[in-house]
Fold this sequence. Notes:
single chain, alpha+beta, 3-stranded antiparallel sheet
Amino acid sequence: MCADLSIGGSDASRKANLGASCGSDTGPHSGVLGCEALRQITGYQRPADIARCLREQGVRVFHGRRGPWTTLDLINQAGGLGDPAANDTLDPRQVL
């Protein structure tokens, strides 16, 4: 069972290769967390375990050629931090 999204796992477990691989996480979208980043965050090695862990916590996960991926916004939404896109209007009381 996946308890939380804190970074965990030993160096040995992170280096273990269980026959499943994640592609490179480099890309033009800085808010996107690819398979390698999610592997470090969850502590799981196999892409299917990574995706299951995130889904159990309410994080929307997408599946690409290089493995599961999600965004920081989707993780924040699952954590109850709200939808940043919903703050499109400016309330004059919020201006200093």
